[in-house]
Structure to design on (348 residues):
């Protein structure tokens, strides 16, 4: 059965727009459809009102909605990045202060459930490599953290020949002999450690800091790992910590926040961050409602304005002199005054 969708030929797309009461201009429309793409513009058609005098939608107005969306994403992304860094730092500082252990993330006693944080760690050393090791050696249960670290060391050092391996052992890198079982492609780490053995240099120059710490200390402090965490992984670790640790992290942000608030908000941040990263339109983004918290009554909605308010709330805690909210308000005012954009559908 023939599709009813317009073809990707510019002329046919233009005819399709005209047939749907969208006013086009030959030169600008060709440029819009060539460099922006019809599929990207389509979500903004539904939120662009018709001109009462012509009963048509001007394609220029559709493009202005898209352009506003793009600039709004850049501003929100800047705020989210700063919040993401702060969340990782708060997690690292709080857990070290509470446990006095820089390898606290390997202690299962810090978690209500350590299986998910285990998976986060596995990702750093190659899920398939470790899965292969577990299967090959008949390990079917989640190993304790010390065993896991030994597995990671096995995988990393398996790339070396016997001579290099014996040289490394003679440098007292290990607590005990480690059997080499697998092959992998950590070529840069191989070269760096081999240079260490051959030249006796005092510092490893491994490009990967995590591997560098494993070679020199056999343990990886969280303040090194945290720089590789995204919001999803940060959320996984925080949500699986024991409640007393989550509460400490929440209070570090604000005395008015509870641990359940932090957990929900990081999930909201992760959601909006992913939508921005994947270029999804914010005007009709499918988002979860943000519950009111800390005596606020302005939340309770799922529109982009509520998400903006949440980002601004945290950014005000992190950097009280930030100007993100002013920049967004100025952007809205500019598009409303100059281009007569109606922002009711955005929630602004």
């Amino acid at each position: 059965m023939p599709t009813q969708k317009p073809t990707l030929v510019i002329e046919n797309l233009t005819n399709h727009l005209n047939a749907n009461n969208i006013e086009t201009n030959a030169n600008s429309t060709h440029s819009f459809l060539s460099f922006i793409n019809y599929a990207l513009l389509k979500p903004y058609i539904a939120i662009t009102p018709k001109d009462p005098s012509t009963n048509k939608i001007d394609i220029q107005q559709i493009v202005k909605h898209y352009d506003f969306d793009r600039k709004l994403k850049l501003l929100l992304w800047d705020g989210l990045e700063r919040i993401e860094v702060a969340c990782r730092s708060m997690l690292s500082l709080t857990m070290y202060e509470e446990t006095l252990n820089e390898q606290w993330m390997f202690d299962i006693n810090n978690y209500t459930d350590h299986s998910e944080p285990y998976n986060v760690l596995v990702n750093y050393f190659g899920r398939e490599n470790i899965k292969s090791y577990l299967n090959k050696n008949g390990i079917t249960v989640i190993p304790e953290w010390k065993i896991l670290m030994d597995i990671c060391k096995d995988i990393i050092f398996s790339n070396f020949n016997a001579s290099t391996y014996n040289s490394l052992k003679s440098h007292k890198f290990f607590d005990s002999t480690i059997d080499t079982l697998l092959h992998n492609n950590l070529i840069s780490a191989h070269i760096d450690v081999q240079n260490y053995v051959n030249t006796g240099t005092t510092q490893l120059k491994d490009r990967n800091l995590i591997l560098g710490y494993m070679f020199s200390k056999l343990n990886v402090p969280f303040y090194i790992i945290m720089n590789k965490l995204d919001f999803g992984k940060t959320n996984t670790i925080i949500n699986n910590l024991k409640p007393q640790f989550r509460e400490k992290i929440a209070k570090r942000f604000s005395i008015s926040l509870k641990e359940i608030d932090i957990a929900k908000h990081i999930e909201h941040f992760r959601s909006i961050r992913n939508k921005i990263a994947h270029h999804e339109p914010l005007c009709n983004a499918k988002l979860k409602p943000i519950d009111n918290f800390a005596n606020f009554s302005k939340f309770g909605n799922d529109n982009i304005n509520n998400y903006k308010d949440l980002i601004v709330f945290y950014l005000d805690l992190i950097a009280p002199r930030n100007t993100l909210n002013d920049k967004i308000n100025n952007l809205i005012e500019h598009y409303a005054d100059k281009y007569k954009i109606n922002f009711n559908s955005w929630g602004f």
